[in-house]
Design a protein that fits this description.
Blueprint: H1 3-27, H2 33-54, H3 59-82, H4 88-106
Helix pairs in contact: 1-2, 1-3, 3-4
Length: 110
C-alpha cells in the first residue's frame, strides 16, 4: 500500500471518528438501541481503518492525526448541533489542533 493511500484511509478513519463521537451524545449513555448500535459500529470501523493506516505510518503520528481530526470535527459539530461555545479562545485552541495535524502530516518521515 502506498503511503498516500494510508493517509487517505487515516483521514476516513478520522471522519468516522467524528461520527461516533457525536453519536455518543445521541446514545444517551448507550440507553438508546439504534444510536448505540450505529455508534459502536462507527467505533469499530474507525479503529479498524486506523489500524490499517498504522501499518504504513508511524503509530504516534497516525494516532495523533486520528484523534485530532475527531476532536476538531466533534468540537465544530458540537457548536452547530448542540449550541456549544464559540468563544474566541476555544476557536484559537481548535486552530492549534489544525496546526498540529498539518505539522504531523508535513513532517512525517514514513
Amino acid at each position: 500500500m502506498a503511503q498516500q493511500t494510508a493517509w487517505i484511509i487515516l483521514i476516513i478513519a478520522g471522519v468516522i471518528e467524528i461520527g461516533w463521537a457525536i453519536g455518543l451524545k445521541y446514545t444517551e449513555g448507550f440507553s438508546r438501541l439504534v444510536p448505540s448500535l450505529l455508534t459502536i459500529s462507527a467505533m469499530v470501523i474507525s479503529m479498524y481503518l486506523l489500524s490499517i493506516a498504522a501499518r504504513h505510518l508511524p503509530i504516534g503520528t497516525a494516532y495523533a492525526v486520528w484523534v485530532g481530526i475527531g476532536a476538531l470535527g466533534a468540537a465544530i459539530l458540537g457548536m452547530f448541533l448542540f449550541g456549544e461555545s464559540r468563544d474566541p479562545i476555544r476557536l484559537a485552541c481548535l486552530a492549534l489542533i489544525v496546526i498540529g495535524v498539518i505539522g504531523l502530516k508535513t513532517f512525517s518521515r514514513s
